[in-house]
Amino acid sequence: MIDCYHLNVSLKILLNISDNAFHFAIVEGNELGYFRVDNDGRITVIHPLDREHTMTHYLVVQLSDGIAPYPYHTIDCVVTVDVLDINDNHPIFISPTEYQVEENSPMRKIIGKIKAVDADEGRNSMVSYRIMPESLPKAEFIIDAVNGDIIVSSIIVSK
């Protein structure tokens, strides 16, 4: 059996920044300009991130010392930015939305099924179904809230 652990690793660098001899820069992973790093090493998001577009950003932050023309040293640190999901997508129906039912169909007969998907993740991607009361005042049908089955709930009689 292999044990797996999730570790949060941080690097604390104590610097005397006041002499401006140190410089932080994002040298990789910021091609679209979503992030900024200041001279204290704080990374800031400066443009909105979209998890559905990019779930994880990998930044290489470089710290250098010295002031030109003097020799300087650099150290790189890979920073992983995981974008958490928010409920920002609407469900989309992916199945037919028109069905036919025969007159005098028995109660509890399944006449169709609707299916919707949501591009969000986890709980934010869950969909449930219901028939709006104003759209079906006689309640001839019900819908299974979980699986989308459309079910006859009263005898259908033609007029």
Automatic annotation (TrEMBL):
InterPro entries: Cadherin-domain_protein, Cadherin-like_dom, Cadherin-like_sf, Cadherin_CS
Alphabetized UniProt keyword annotations: Calcium, Cell adhesion, Membrane, Repeat, Transmembrane, Transmembrane helix
GO terms for biological process, alphabetical: homophilic cell adhesion via plasma membrane adhesion molecules
GO MF assignments: calcium ion binding
Keyword Protease on entry: no
GO cellular component, one term: plasma membrane
CDD domains, A to Z: Cadherin_repeat (cd11304)
Domain Cadherin: 22-93, 93-153
Major location category of this protein: membrane
Name of protein: Cadherin domain protein
